[in-house]
Structure formats: structure tokens, C-alpha cells
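Sanity check

After download, print the first record. It should look like this:
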Amino acid sequence: MDGQPFFFVNKEVDPGLLATLRTDLVPFLEAHAPLSETLRKRMEEDPRQHRFTLVFDREAYSPDFFAAMQARRIAILSYHKFPGEDWPREEFRERTVRLAGGETVPLLLAERTVRLGGKVEVRELRKLTEAGHQTSILSTDWKTDLTALAATMFARWSQENFYKYMRQHY
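Expected C-alpha cells:
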């Protein structure tokens, strides 16, 4: 959450992000990510409790992949590749969002439950800018507050900027 990478793939992602997630990242994380007794118990008691969350950009948009991850108890958080029409302004409410650095910002947010491709039910969150642009975020994380999901999705830019800087200067 502080913008520092937790895990990264240190090879060319030739087959694409989706294939790399499926064949490299997810199997590695399932084998190595810690699973506490507390989390194991919560997962046994609640079918919507996930083990961990994958955060990625719209390049890996796939309702099939989202459904497969949900079945494996892995939540996804990504941008919507095909958000469709804008939502009515009346659906948005100002919410206080705590960013990774601790500061808080007001954001206009809205949320709906949507079904993608007839395959998987997800949360769709939208952020409305003052200029009227809507950023659409999808998640299968049913436990985390929408303000925390928004902060997490927008924090991912700091990681992209970190890697871009490191590639350019080191």
C-alpha cells in the first residue's frame, strides 16, 4: 500500500499479462503466500473471503480469468476494459479516502454489482472527476470497503512509476 513492490515478475512478459498471471504469478503466490490460521478459519466460514488480491491493469481483463480466480479464493482488482455508458451523477457520493501515505482526499465514488460475460459477479466502482470523467474499477473482493479498494487501485500507479524510473535510470 505504500507504493513499494510486493512481488514482481523479472522476465519479459512475452505471452501477455494474462498468461503470465495464470502460469507464473498465481501458482507462485499460491505456493508461497502466507496463510495464517485466522485467515484459513475465515475462509472456511465465509465463501466470499479471499486469500489474497491481485491488482493489475486492464490488459488482463477477462471475465473467465476473474471467475477462475474467484473459484481459487483469489480476489482481483483491475480497471474495467469495457465500462459502457456513464452512470448518473446522482449515484456518486463524496467519500473520504485514506491514501497509502496516510493523507485523506475526498473522492466522488459509486458502486454497483454487475455480471461480466454471464460468468462472474463483480463489484464495479466508479470515481467521478470534476470534469465528469468516470474511472471504472472491477473487483471480486466483497469484504473490503470501496474507499480502500479505490485507494489500492490508484496506489498501483506508484509501483508503475517506480519500475519506469528504475528501468530508465538503473
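If your output differs, re-run the checksum step. Summary of this record's structure: Strands lie at 52-56, 74-79, 93-98, 104-116, 120-128, 134-139.
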